[in-house]
């Protein structure tokens, strides 16, 4: 895992002091809220429905046990004993005091963490594949490239007041586990015909009110030009992205309005110019970063599992994933207990996960964009012991990628922008399917809920998506089908008129019934939808 | 009735204008009639409140009830964490929110 | 405003408005014109860039320009940062003045993008500004300060 040197540490420490000073100037009245807001946002501090909310960056979703313990301790010391893991691999605290914010940032900096650029119109936390370094199907570990970009994007002097937020994801496998093409820039590390490693650039994806899938704008950027190419993409956006309308300010709109071809042409022109300016860090820097992500000392061990305990066997089947070393697996800790709040973890649970990571996973944890936690490198021999401890802490839900593994944004329970609540829906749906026993039968089914059009809950990318809307002051929900954030990326389509809370839960049941009745061998919900189209689902929902 | 709300600048807590001060309980909120803008400007300038705004509410048997669900959630707390409810507002019960 | 008016009017900030300056040459009081006017006029020595202007159209005229003002009508509009770097990358060595809604917390980034004079709408607290200009010490990216003062990035320092 990456470790700060004195330079990285000094940057973060300086930022803490800068923010301490800014917060003090706000409290003293030297800054108005209008002036302070972009500064606090640049440090991840929002003002939410109930209090200040702090969003902590977990770069490329990787953290060690010390960091996870610190997150748990902060939850207990400054918040109300819990935090919320998000779809962008961050952690949010919901009950923060402005007076405490600088102290929290100082506590974070002691474990090489921060909240820098987790909000605001700047380059946000860079996300990546949660199985990076463990996946059996990856070309190489994408995280060194993400780290290189993290440094480049931190305090970038030119790109701190962009038209709108900017999100980058980096992957290095054909299987996309990071919703790469739904980011402002998606980067896939690839090999070209000559066997050289480089980067494919996809630009202009996003969700929100106008979801778009990023087109590829360059097939191969050599590794010693990666930062320069990203800089060119950003400069064209900073200069020409729309600023007249906040809802049209994302890069996806620029690429769409300008056309991918013209955008690409301008980027290439800027790129040619910037290559002469020498903005690329020396290649030696990438070489310095790489060893931090070297494989831990894997050892051969047992490869088979004693499946005599059916509960354990179920958890193994559902929540463990093939590893590149055949004596190991990646184990997913579900933060989706039936009836629970998706993505929430208490301070105690965080410290327990930290302990388990230290004991069983070379001290590493990952945050998934599906709001779960991964122990990336667990010996098959240790699985039963791990599961036993998880079960005891209510962390053993065997439901990865099932209908119980719902992504839900904070919604109206926490979020000032929301139209409707998301969490109660997730709770009721998971309870319903756990009770009627359909979860297993339905197999892979990704259900995603957002409380408003901003789409923080990825509803556009759900096999089933639910969007909360406001209907004359009451909560209403639109259902959509057929989305995917993976390598078979697609955007979900709305089924028709919306439903109230009970109605939408029934509607979810109805569409899963259609699937079970019509599926062919081995088809997932998404496959059936793609084969038979919207009509049969619509008929079942509305023709009564 | 027209009432005022905002967040405490230092702590971020949700507060309601009780005529003199900012209270943690929605039920202390008073009708400010047409004086809303004026009070908000003065209170914000004095940094006694952050990002305040005016809203419509009604006086019911259970106390002051904001017209919009968002403000009722603010008044009570997240409906999914009833253990964390604002204590002084809990007399209304959770059906009041929805 | 008609085009003619624009030609004759001095749009610029006066030398008195300049609160911070990192240059040794004298502050001249130029007649500052719009980017359009600058391209048609052969004798303009000072120009003012608005957020929507393309700084690159000025590149043929850099030799005769002694002052480029970049206006920030609102601090949240960051186009001026790109304009500044583009001019410096093209070798412009005259005064580059940030004007308008210029606040404490933007100073260090502006400096790094090549601004060497600052004329904020509202004068800034001198102490706060001094601290802001001192900035964070080291930097991750190569920007205009690499050209101007040979500032080395963290990555370069790591691999000396
Ligand atoms: C509670 C406070 C939050 C606020 C105020 C907020 C605000 C927003 C807004 C305004 C957008 C739309 C941006 C646009 O389309 O230009 C957005 C998008 C998004 N947010 Fe949030 N969000 C919040 C929480 C979260 C959480 C908890 C997550 C993760 C679970 C999240 C993840 C995302 C994602 C993935 C997008 C879509 C990105 C895209 O449009 O490309 N946000 N958010
Ligand atoms: S989707 Fe809307 S309601 Fe949900 S967190 Fe995002 S902004 Fe809030």
Describe the secondary structure blueprint for this structure.
The complex is a heterotrimer of chains A (544), B (98) and C (160).
Chain A lengths: L5 H22 L5 H9 L3 E3 L4 E5 L5 E3 H14 L3 E4 L5 E6 L1 H13 L16 E2 L14 H11 L14 E4 L13 E7 L5 E7 L12 E7 L3 H15 L10 H8 L1 H18 L5 H7 L20 H10 E3 L5 E6 L10 E3 H14 L3 E4 L5 E7 L3 H10 L14 E2 L14 H14 L1 H5 L4 E4 L13 E8 L2 E8 L11 E2 L6 H18 L6 H8 L2 H8 L2
Parallel strand pairs in A: 6-7, 7-8, 16-17, 17-18
Antiparallel strand pairs in A: 1-2, 2-5, 3-14, 4-5, 4-13, 8-9, 9-10, 11-12, 12-15, 14-15, 18-19, 19-20
Helix pairs in contact in A: 1-2, 1-4, 3-4, 3-11, 6-8, 7-8, 15-17
Chain B lengths: L1 E6 L6 E4 L4 E2 L12 H10 L4 E11 L2 E4 L2 H8 L22
Antiparallel strand pairs in B: 1-2, 1-4, 2-3, 4-5
Chain C lengths: L2 H6 L11 E2 L10 E3 H6 L5 E4 L17 E6 L6 H11 L5 E6 L6 H6 L4 E4 L5 H9 L9 H6 L4 H5 L2
Parallel strand pairs in C: 2-3, 3-4, 4-5, 5-6
Antiparallel strand pairs in C: 1-6
The complex binds protoporphyrin IX containing FE and iron/sulfur cluster.
Name given to the CATH homologous superfamily of chain C:
Aldolase class I
- Give the mean pLDDT of chain A: 96
CATH topology call of the largest domain in chain A: Sulfite Reductase Hemoprotein, domain 1
Strand content of chain C: 15-25%
CATH level-4 homologous superfamily of the largest domain in chain A: Sulfite Reductase Hemoprotein, domain 1
The name of the CATH architecture of chain C is Alpha-Beta Barrel
**Remind me, CATH topology of chain C?**
TIM Barrel
Tally of domains of chain A: 4
Rg of chain C, alpha carbons: 16 Å
Order of helices and strands of chain C: HEEHEEHEHEHHH
Task: Give me the side-by-side strand order of the main sheet of chain A.
Answer: 1-2-5-4-13
Short account of what is shown:
The complex is a heterotrimer of chains A (544), B (98) and C (160). Chain B has 98 residues and is α+β, with helices and mostly antiparallel strands.
Give structural notes.
The complex is a heterotrimer of chains A (544), B (98) and C (160). Chain A is of the alpha+beta class and 544 residues long. Chain A has helices at residues 6-27, 33-41, 65-78, 98-110, 143-153, 226-240, 251-258, 260-277, 283-289, 310-319, 347-360, 383-392, 423-436, 438-442, 501-518, 525-532, 535-542; strands at 45-47, 52-56, 62-64, 82-85, 91-96, 127-128, 168-171, 185-191, 197-203, 216-222, 320-322, 328-333, 344-346, 364-367, 373-379, 407-408, 447-450, 464-471, 474-481, 493-494. The model of chain A has no long low-confidence stretch (mean pLDDT 96). Chain B has one domain (2-91). Chain B is α+β, with helices and mostly antiparallel strands and 98 residues long. Chain B has helices at residues 36-45, 69-76, and strands at 2-7, 14-17, 22-23, 50-60, 63-66. Chain B is globular. Residues 1-8 of chain C have low confidence and may be disordered. Chain C has one domain (3-134): Aldolase class I (TIM Barrel, Alpha-Beta Barrel), CATH 3.20.20.70. Chain C is of the alpha/beta class and 160 residues long. The termini of chain C are far apart. The chains are: A alpha+beta (544), B alpha+beta (98), C alpha/beta (160). Chain A binds chain C through residues 5, 7-8, 10-11, 14-15, 18, 21-22, 25, 30, 35, 38-39, 121, 151-152, 154-162, 235, 238-239, 243, 273, 277-279, 281-282, 284-285, 288, and chain C through 51, 54, 75-79, 81-82, 85, 89, 103, 105-106, 108-110, 112-113, 125, 128, 131, 136-143, 146, 153-159. Bound molecules: protoporphyrin IX containing FE and iron/sulfur cluster (SF4). Iron/sulfur cluster is lined by residues 409-411, 415, 417-418, 450-452, 454-457 of chain A.
